[in-house]
Design a protein that fits this description.
It is a single chain. The protein has nine helices and eight strands. The protein has 216 residues and is α/β, with parallel strands linked by helices. It has a single domain, classed as Aldolase class I (TIM Barrel). Strands 1-8-7-6-5-4-3-2 form an eight-stranded parallel sheet. The protein starts with a strand and ends with a helix. The relative contact order is 0.16. The model has no long low-confidence stretch (mean pLDDT 97). The structure holds D-xylitol-5-phosphate and zinc ion. Zinc ion binds next to strand 2.
């Protein structure tokens, strides 16, 4: 079944506990960590994510849009995040970092910006529990879905085979684009504006239905 991970980047930052209570039908809470270096925007650090972890009944899917994840990512695993995804473009040693995250007990994810080729990672898939294919340039919510990256999902889906490696899309995912990503091979969908614009429970149900209707 399609996993729907709402991004709290689109939520009200001063009422996060309440905003998380509005997405109780979600699979995971997607937490976008931005450092104003890897991307030109700034959100939460480990202290905030730790508090979100304390109050959230839903496990956290942490997406690190930061420089030097080799140094900082393990801290997010240590505070109890269910999954920790770092960017391929930022990591010095992606395989060593993924192994460390798994040792701590988190699922290890690797994220690719729209312009980053997938081929070098296809033979490394066993090292990761999920691959995040960015469908916008990372940094901001509310951008348009880039359909051109779908061939990366098709390649990943083929390479994953029967293994339980989740393929995630993030950026511009809404009721009209989610089917395109599902058909290309995605099974895990991050949506910010499309969830928090209006009633989150209704939106999550609509996204789930649209993704399932187009399942690969
Ligand atoms: C963008 C973030 C996304 C963002 C998606 O850099 O990684 O998670 O919240 O927002 P929408 O769904 O509005 O495109
Ligand atoms: Zn994200």
């Amino acid at each position: 079944m399609a996993r729907i991970n709402p991004s709290i980047l689109a939520a009200d930052f001063v009422n996060l506990e309440h905003e998380i209570s509005r997405i109780s039908t979600a699979d995971l809470v997607h937490v976008d960590v931005m450092d104003n270096h890897f991307v030109p925007n700034l959100t939460f650090g480990p202290q905030m994510v730790g508090r979100i972890q304390d109050v959230s009944p839903i496990p956290l899917d942490v997406h690190l849009m930061i420089d030097d994840p080799d140094r900082w990512a393990p801290g997010y695993a240590e505070l109890g995040a269910f999954s920790v995804t770092f960017h391929a473009e930022a990591a010095k040693d992606a395989v060593a970092l993924a192994r460390r995250l798994r040792d701590i007990g988190a699922r290890a994810g690797i994220a690719l910006k729209p312009g980053t080729p997938v081929e070098p990672y296809l033979e490394l898939l066993a090292e990761f529990d999920q691959v995040l294919v960015m469908t916008v340039e990372p940094g901001f919510g509310g951008q348009s879905f880039i359909t051109d990256v779908m061939p990366k999902l098709v390649a990943l889906r083929g390479a994953v085979g029967e293994r339980d490696i989740w393929l995630q899309v993030d950026g511009g995912v809404d009721e009209s684009t989610i089917g395109i990503a599902a058909e290309a091979g995605a099974d895990t969908f991050v949506a910010g504006s499309a969830v928090y614009r209006g009633d989150p429970a209704t939106n999550i149900a609509a996204l789930r239905a649209a993704a399932s209707a187009h399942r690969h």
